[in-house]
Specification:
Layout (H helix, E strand, L loop, with lengths): L1 E2 L9 E3 L3 E2 L36 E7 L11 E8 L2 E2 L2 E8 L5 E5 L4 E3 L2 E3 L4 E6 L2 E4 L12 E8 L2 E7 L10 E6 L2 E7 L19 E2 L3 E9 L6 E9 L7 E5 L2 E6 L2 E6 L11 E7 L5 E8 L6 E7 L2 E6 L10 E6 L4 E6 L8 E5 L2 E5 L8 E6 L5 E7 L6 E4 L2 E6 L11 E7 L1
Parallel strand pairs: 4-28
Antiparallel strand pairs: 1-12, 2-5, 3-32, 5-35, 6-7, 7-8, 8-11, 9-10, 11-12, 13-14, 14-15, 15-16, 17-18, 18-19, 19-20, 21-22, 22-23, 23-24, 25-26, 26-27, 27-28, 29-30, 30-31, 31-32, 33-34, 34-35
Length: about 425
Amino acid sequence: MKRAVRVAMATLVVVMAGCTHRTAAGTPSGAPAPGASGSGAAAPTALVVQPDGATFRVTSVLSVAQAVTTGAGRRYQETSRVPGLLGKSPVSKLALTSAGDTVIATAPPDLTTGGEVKIKQNTVSLLGPGGRRDLSLPPVRGAAPRQAIYAAARGDAVAWLETPSTDLYGGDWSVFAATGGTTRLLGTSSGVAPGGHVPAPPGSAAPVLGDEFAYWPTAVPAGRKDQFGLAIAGRRLDGTGPMRIVVRDAGRPAADGKNLYYVRTTMFAPAFAENRYEIRLVDATGADRVAAAGRLRKGEEVSALAADAGTVSWIVTSADEEDEQARMYAWDAAANTAVQVNLADRGLSTEISASGRVLAWGNGSGNGDGGMYLLDLGAEPALFRLGEAQGLSYAFVAGDHLAWSVMGDDPQDPAGNVLVVGRRL
């Protein structure tokens, strides 16, 4: 049902020019195979380790310090602006669809009593030039209110994760998906742990979408009481079949058609080598193999992963606070080559959005570089800076659409902090 809430529209051309620069663990029996069609992933080949310890070759090195903001580059015409408030309800901007709608979460303002934050049940909606369409199921009477904190969109499908937790430690979750006009509950943390009480996984717990499946990271009981491991759960978007654990000792899922990619380091698999990371691939048959791998220095970690159209991207954080130059890799699975982008902060909170051969990212609410960037992996990789929004540094790309944060004159006033959505001309 559409509400009579519409986003402001304008005609604005954003013109940008960029700098250019000439062993396997099996999937548990019965686990859902990743989504359906077309990934562009390379066929299995013997991995050759380069002198730097990576199994791929870096062909271009860029730096965000080189990103250009003006000139005759890509052009986007503004189609909508998503406000920071709808009435008195704060608006969380969670994802962007290829149709140019923004996935948002709204709720009445939280209450704080005796230092305890009491949240209200969130409503997840699509908001765009055509208005607002709510996706959430009706709330269950007596159930604890939940906030929607992560979402993903692919085609006409949207998935999101809700949690009753208001701190950084509790990770109880419920995952929903809306597709074909129907919203379904895909699973809850009670399906992996008695009572549904699990700690939050490291970093993001965002779901990701293949063509037929949704996947999300979760903590799972590991033997003795109060001990947990890390895994990736999944279920078909249409709700058929059960929710299952797809792979254990894994984190940072990213889906590309039939393929599920994930990260394995000591953070997710304590027995794994401390100086190495693997980007692993579970294909449509359930076979699990190394797709790419590299070396980690002490203190480094893989903090983000994204995949689309055969391009897989990840971030290796900087080792310590003195070294504020994380590295992002955009790896071409078919060519086994990568473009490296040197970032201007540690990369601890950076989130990558991927669509085809275009990537967008910002560092969210983290400290450090509040810039938002777009990387076009054409014949000559081109890097653009979209703007800066310290504490609200979010950028999304989906199909022909791009979205990025713009802060108002008073950043403390949420009403003036908007997400600008534009369509490529």
